[in-house]
From TrEMBL:
Its EC number is 2.7.7.56. It is an enzyme of class 2 (transferase). It comes from the Bacteria. Phosphate binds at residues 89, 127-129. Belongs to the RNase PH family. Residues 1-14 have a biased composition (Basic and acidic residues). This is Ribonuclease PH. The lineage of its organism: Bacteria, Thermotogati, Deinococcota, Deinococci, Deinococcales. Pfam families: RNase_PH, RNase_PH_C. It catalyses: tRNA(n+1) + phosphate = tRNA(n) + a ribonucleoside 5'-diphosphate. Phosphorolytic 3'-5' exoribonuclease that plays an important role in tRNA 3'-end maturation. Removes nucleotide residues following the 3'-CCA terminus of tRNAs; can also add nucleotides to the ends of RNA molecules by using nucleoside diphosphates as substrates, but this may not be physiologically important. Probably plays a role in initiation of 16S rRNA degradation (leading to ribosome degradation) during starvation. One of its GO terms (biological process) is rRNA 3'-end processing. Homohexameric ring arranged as a trimer of dimers.
Amino acid sequence: MTRPLPPREGRDALTPRPLSVQRAVNPHAPGSAHLKLGRTEILATVSVEDKPAPHMRGKKEGWLTAEYAMLPRATTDRQARERNLQNGRRHEIQRLLGRALRASIDLRHFRNQTLYVDCDVLVADGGTRVASILAGYAALHDLADRLIHAGKLTEWPLTHVVGAVSVGLVGDELRVDLDYAEDKVARADLNVVATDAGLLIEVQGGAEEGPITHAEYVRLLTVGVEATGGLLRELNRQL
């Protein structure tokens, strides 16, 4: 018996969920953003520490690292706070965020400094890691804009506009930006991290219910890059 596919709630298969972003939402952080992607909500903040990361001492550039956490009631059931515990999923997402956001910035502008990008999931409905990349980039944009206007930087430090989207095969249908209900039943899914110019940074994911064809994978990747570009155009419009 074929199981029914989750509905798309007013959008077609290739349309991402509505995106909205607000900058400068945290008065204490030099860069911050609150981003919504459908019902998923992320709060991202950037902190700048005037201290190099140990492995960057004596180098010409600074370092950027990212942390990710989910609030206890971000999901339908309460999750215990991780506090100092580090589970595998969180560690994997943090490494992805760090790699993606480092690709967006020229860290030579932050020599002997460390940038910390904290992404906290306020509400989770699928796509939290891709939404965190979008929110993290928006928070870095906020930081860069403030530093330029304060005269602390004379050159724009962001070299690439970076974002991400999830794509998946739900039944035989290719869908963009999966919510939780779709992600649960997808037979294959990818998280595509790319620039607004279509340059790839990273791809994560794979098949869930048996192998997929080369053509299906290429189609997922192609649509993911196109959808990321669309999300970034909307993000830039709001920034």
